[in-house]
Amino acid sequence: MSLTSLNTKIKGFIQHISLIPSYVMYWNESGIRLWHQVAKNNIVFWDATGSILKTRLDESKYLYYELALANPTPKEPTIPVASMISNSHDTPQIHYWLSKFRLEEKKLFGHRTAAFPRQVNSNRSLVFLQSALLEFCGETIDTFRSRAWRILNGTASTADLRKTIPHGCLSHTMKNSKNCVNLITNQISSMECTCLAF
Asked: Domain span at residue 141?
């Protein structure tokens, strides 16, 4: 059975291309359907890397972004559902990519049944945290801090508890802490670094 015989609503793989800012966004209908089925109340991941892309002659630094689902099969790798290559690493660009992907989901399944993941894991990059909060919760970092405070104090509403939680990777936090300390002294042990991260 071919994809064309499935009466797909989202055609092709490359969905958006732009020159300024320069980006290519790509996903397909199968990935959107998988997202809709698996992402609800689950953990999703997104990250960016520049190490797999070559710098262009004009010195533009391009990053490869990926949105992936936690695999329902234990100990199996994450499942990528959407990707983007872009020379823009800012909140409006990342949020636009995520919102375009989710708009395609809403075209297929309707706005009321769109998937809201329980947790969004990233490398603690502020653009990922802000974009996830904006798209899934309609929040800023400040309104999220208020919500987190209510949760920690036991005064959270049901709506507070239902919203997506952004999660920054602990290993990136530890690395950042060690780098900050190394600006002052390079005499730090692994145990001290671990204590600083907490």
From this structure: 3-170
**45 lies in a domain?**
yes
Whether residue 101 lies inside any domain: the answer is: yes
- Under DSSP, the state recorded for 5 is G
- Tell me the whole-structure pTM to 2 decimals: 0.80
Burial of residue 34, with CB atoms counted within 10 A of its CB: 0-12 exposed, 13-18 middle, 19 or more buried:
middle
Number of domains in the chain: 1
Mean pLDDT by 10 residues, the chain (198 residues): 60 86 93 95 88 66 92 93 93 95 95 94 90 96 96 95 87 68 69 60
Please check whether residue 163 lies inside any domain of the structure.
Answer: yes
Judge whether 181 lies within some domain.
Answer: no
Distance CA(18)–CA(194), nearest Å, equals: 42
Q: Is 116 exposed, middle or buried (0-12, 13-18, 19+ CB in 10 A)?
A: middle
Q: Is 125 left (phi over 0), alpha (psi -120 to 50) or beta?
A: beta
